[in-house]
Design a protein that fits this description.
Two copies of one chain form a homodimer.
Chain A (H helix, E strand, L loop, with lengths): L2 H7 L1 H10 L10 E7 L6 H17 L4 E6 L10 H6 L5 E4 L23 H10 L2 H9 L4 E8 L6 E3 L13 E3 L2 H8 L4 E3 L3 H10 L4 E2 L4 H7 L7 E4 L8 E7 H6 L2 H35 L3 E4 L2 H21 L1 H21 L3 H15 L1
Chain lengths: 363, 363
């Protein structure tokens, strides 16, 4: 089907008609949704997950429930996905919630906050620890709900033209870095820069900025940062995990037959494993390639990490006073994280460290 | 529906009739499957995942595709799930593949081998690194295929009545420990014991055995081991992750309408995230409870870990010579693991260690 036909036949009219049919009808109703992504087509790990979800949903419904995926900018710009879903411009969107901390910093808990959880811990909190209920309750104010659909894992700390050895080196640093991390780093003298993905490379090249973070080896390599910045820092302490979500307009969700609701939710849940596996599959080779090409790997010092941690805690206290939603979500999140950390260091951490040590001793 | 009715109306006859209908029929065909689990009803984290999958499949098909879950022993004993699926006694089964290493040690790669992958690494290999294709190609010889459906994460090293401080302490130790780990530990003088879950406690109490491993804090606490063994060791190096799978009889799979195939596979994929999250949710509190009750947490020493690692490598070399399927799967698995380890230590490992350190410094 051509996109033009799709739009003509589908969209909101399509789903409203479908929603009128009983969920358990003998023959399934036809439903078409438009899904707008925050990501450009070039990021196959991200938009690819949305494409896969659309395909799974079609396969599971004998092609009766069709989701057409649009990349960033095709319907609305990448940072306006929440608004587009909230307003019903589209039925669904793929995005990451920290893009919207300008509306309320509590949005961060639908994604990640600095010194937050890793992938497993986030999934535990979200699916079992009340995170999904708490966050989606908050999202009701925006007429939508969120389904995690992929996770990059812990991201890298970004590309730096010069080494950052002490906390003092952060002063005046022009660093392309996203939302919450920007707010935290500003407390330590960093000048955070908001620059769209495609514009980072020239800014680094010209020296308009001193450093930039994006995702991890695979995505970063695509944007070519290694050619204009030598030092690659780890870890991205602002993204211990980074879950993208599918946002669904609440009215459209309620109009959806129950069986299609189950299919959609399952497709997101499956993708949350498989698309994360895709990142874990492509990153090792990309990292090897970067190192072979001369990239210098560096770790943030303990002093820098501790200073950033303290700045994050101060930031959370400030936001907690201003935003009751932030305070409520932060209380649940941080208590849960503490319990998870106490357990993860016993079995997972001990095992991972032994295996990591073995691998390095072999070389 | 009563179980009796279900069996009468369902089973293999049901699915064969359903398979004859075209996949994209206007009204969906009714299909009923029986699924036998390797686990007892009491293990809600394990059998619960099968129940959830059955519910999701029913929800997503307007109750047309029904899966009835039977606990271990209701149709066949827990260790005969592969045979029951292979022979068509049931359409599907929930199990963990290392139960079947007596048939061929290559079965281990459908689950875990000592000093193998963690959860994320296994998922990357399985879904993206060719693992699923390789293993399911091997399973064709058993008329079935496997879908991972839940993961316990890294397991604990078990309960010991006395401390194990040196490699010499392993000599003569009567240790209730499963398949591959048993074979590896035997090389170091351990006398591995095969004892069903419910019989471990009395054996430990009477001193018939010196030690026993089961899963992790939540499941172990249920069986009460803390009352009869004081030392709880970490990590379970034989289970860096432990993925249970849904096995499906190949003929039944091929007879299944395409949309039901997609629904079933998605339900397993979703569960692989959600049921793992369930383990990560329940283990922290169970660990706290055990420690508060007097359990002494111990780590296996580096010397013991290294000796076990060497024994495992020797065991793999032996099996590789005898079993070409083991050799082929081991080659893929071990090369992949090496690449994953090199990457995971850069971002995930650095981040996890910092967070773990912070949590312990706070106390």
């Amino acid at each position: 089907m051509q996109r033009r036909d799709f739009i003509r036949h589908g969209g909101i009219a399509g789903i409203l008609a479908a929603g009128a049919a009983p969920a358990m009808a003998q023959s399934q109703p036809s439903v078409t949704w438009r899904l707008t992504s925050s990501y450009p087509k070039s990021l196959d790990t991200l938009v690819g997950a949305a494409d896969n979800i659309a395909k799974r949903v079609a396969d599971a419904t004998g092609n009766k429930f069709q989701i057409k995926v649009f990349a960033a900018g095709e319907i609305v710009p990448g940072l306006q996905v929440l608004d587009a879903v909230q307003n019903g411009t589209v039925e669904a969107g793929q995005t990451i919630m920290y893009y919207y901390i300008g509306k309320n910093p509590a949005m961060g808990f639908g994604a990640i906050v600095p010194f937050g959880m890793n992938v497993r811990q986030h999934n535990a909190w979200w699916y079992q620890g009340g995170g999904s209920e708490l966050f989606n309750d908050f999202l009701k104010g925006y007429n939508c709900q969120a389904f995690p659909c992929l996770n990059t894992g812990t991201q890298m700390g970004g590309w730096f033209k010069k080494e950052i050895k002490t906390v003092a080196d952060l002063k005046g640093l022009k660093f392309r870095v996203g939302g919450i991390a920007g707010a935290v780093l500003q407390r330590l003298g960093v000048v955070p820069q908001q620059i769209a993905g495609g514009d980072i490379y020239p800014a680094l090249e010209k020296g308009t900025i001193d450093a930039a973070e994006w995702v991890g080896p695979y995505d970063d390599d695509k944007l070519g940062f290694a050619k204009v910045a030598k030092y690659y820092y780890t870890p991205g302490w602002w993204e211990g995990n980074a879950p993208s979500v599918m946002l669904v307009n609440q009215k459209q969700w309620e109009a959806l037959p129950k069986d299609y609701q189950a299919v959609f939710a399952m497709a997101c849940g499956e993708s949350n494993t498989v698309a994360t596996a895709r990142y874990d599959h492509v990153n090792p080779a990309a990292m090897r390639k970067l190192i072979a090409g001369g990239t210098q790997l560096r770790s943030f010092s303990r002093d820098i990490m501790d200073a950033c941690y303290k700045a994050a805690i101060d930031q959370y206290a400030e936001w907690g006073e201003k935003f009751p939603e932030f305070k409520k979500l932060h209380a649940s999140y941080s208590k849960y994280l503490e319990e998870e950390l106490a357990w993860f260091r016993v079995a997972e951490g001990t095992y991972d460290n032994y295996m990591s040590g073995r691998a390095s001793r072999k070389k």
